[in-house]
């Protein structure tokens, strides 16, 4: 007679997989936002338009995506709002 795995074991394994995949990517993305905040002290001539446009667009696109997927990923949403905000701030500094 073989032992059938319980559904509780399946659920916990599933949640462990989701935690690994859906937790670490947005968490490491905070490094980009933190680096962008650190760059607030840089002179505006050192700010790159293409880089800040990429950071801003990434933040806007992925913020929207994080709200349409199931389950909603609030860590992904918050990091991308921060990315969009810091990117827009840097672009505003550069344009002035």
TrEMBL record:
Family annotation (InterPro entries): MPC (IPR005336)
Subcellular localization: Mitochondrion inner membrane
Membrane topology note: Multi-pass membrane protein
Family annotation (Pfam families): MPC
Main location, first listed in the record: mitochondrion
Annotated keywords: Membrane, Mitochondrion, Mitochondrion inner membrane, Transmembrane, Transmembrane helix, Transport
PANTHER family per record: UPF0041 BRAIN PROTEIN 44-RELATED
Role this protein plays: Mediates the uptake of pyruvate into mitochondria.
Family indicated by similarity: Belongs to the mitochondrial pyruvate carrier (MPC) (TC 2.A.105) family.
Protein name: Mitochondrial pyruvate carrier
